[in-house]
């Protein structure tokens, strides 16, 4: 990692949501980088940023798409009561157990990130519009459930005769049907096998006509 500042008075050391040394987790991981203002002045700071990932073997080769080069422009304002000398305390203060470093940045404990360590981190991230409210805990929108909001919710859980594939939509297992898979296929067949009354039941009126004609002929 390398950072170059054209206005070092305005922007402090970058803040990472993960340790800057060590291994990248094998599972899906989301991390962020923030460039906090020092609060010592007002203006626009130009930051050049390079992030490099290398393989662990001895050849030291960069992984695909590495290094990553960025150049951003950061707008900063001066904070009230902040000294123009080295910042000894974090302003605003660190949250959620974060520790203020001598450089004036918050080093966040595992599960939190951000300038003040105020943002919880969910890995994997919350799906289907869910919101991370605590480390590893998602608040799910209506129609979804599960630790990361990856499960669709259906009424009566599809009667355990099907799989919920979308909010309120069941895909029934074999031999079951219905909006929520509440009917066995045997019922559908039995209902479909009801005899046709017009074909199977005798016509009473015609029988009466036949009887009357027999009496009249006698």
From TrEMBL:
Gene Ontology cellular component terms for the protein in this record: cell surface; extracellular region
Entries under InterPro entries matching the protein: Dev_Signal_Modulators, EGF, EGF-like_CS, WIF, WIF_sf
Keyword annotations of the record: Developmental protein, Disulfide bond, EGF-like domain, Glycoprotein, Repeat, Secreted, Signal
Domain of life: Eukaryota
Record's compositionally biased regions (Basic and acidic residues): 188-209
Domain EGF-like span(s) in chain numbering: 86-118, 150-182
GO MF term list: signaling receptor binding
Primary location class: secreted
Region: Disordered, residue numbers: 188-218
Disulfide partners: 90-100, 108-117, 154-164, 172-181
Span of domain WIF: 1-76
SMART domains listed in its UniProt record: EGF
Transit peptide as UniProt keyword: no
Pfam families linked: hEGF, WIF
Subcellular location: Secreted
Protein name: Wnt inhibitory factor 1
Top-level taxonomy: Eukaryota, Metazoa, Echinodermata, Eleutherozoa, Echinozoa
